[in-house]
């Protein structure tokens, strides 16, 4: 639904409630078929999404990248926090989720593709730099070195001072810091998420910030 200015208007509460219940069933059904790709039995809670957005450096001018948006709970939190839809690119691997996202958020740049391979998915030869990256793709199957290499590639895509935030149910940092590139901290635990989770926050170290990351 849109108003005259083209901005999304909030759904009436009952519509939103029905949508949430439908999403819960759909998410769970997709998880049963493909648990490792989905990585969660339910979409993140509203307070978790708000915490993720609050920890992300959306205040830096520039595009915002969302990886693994699912059915759009974090996308919605970004919009509710005042991030313009035209700034957001959301990359989702599950084709039916990507279709739903594009329908729900027509002004967001939704791409059905692989968020692990940004050069291939964005087809920009590495040129686009982001104010922040909100990352929710499961990486349980990856070794620690691969995770660090992946995040190093993401950091090469950030504007100066930009950060990366990660959804994870682990209670220790899923990706360990890389000296000279990024440090890691976390939000407090968000208890109403299923399961309770922290937002993991990866921030450029002083040396990488001065070298342009
Ligand atoms: C844990 S869910 C998170 C969904 C949503 N962000 C939330 O917080 O509820 C992970 C999402 O990542 C998507 N995903 C998995 N592998 C992906 C990939 N290689 N590229 C993009 N998205 C991927 C899944 O389809 C799923 O929607």
From TrEMBL:
GO molecular function: phosphatidyl-N-methylethanolamine N-methyltransferase activity; phosphatidylethanolamine N-methyltransferase activity; RNA binding; rRNA (adenine-N6,N6-)-dimethyltransferase activity
Pfam families registered for this protein in UniProt: Methyltransf_25
InterPro entries to which the protein is assigned, alphabetical: KsgA/Erm, Methyltransf_25, SAM-dependent_MTases_sf
Methyltransferase domain sequence ranges: 64-162
CDD domains in UniProt: AdoMet_MTases
UniProt keywords, alphabetically: Methyltransferase, RNA-binding, S-adenosyl-L-methionine, Transferase
Enzyme class: transferase
Entry superkingdom: Bacteria
EC id: 2.1.1.17, 2.1.1.71
Record bears the keyword RNA-binding: yes
Residues annotated as signal peptide: none
Descriptive protein name: Phosphatidylethanolamine/phosphatidyl-N-methylethanolamine N-methyltransferase
Organism expressing this protein natively: Aureimonas pseudogalii
Top-level taxonomy: Bacteria, Pseudomonadati, Pseudomonadota, Alphaproteobacteria, Hyphomicrobiales
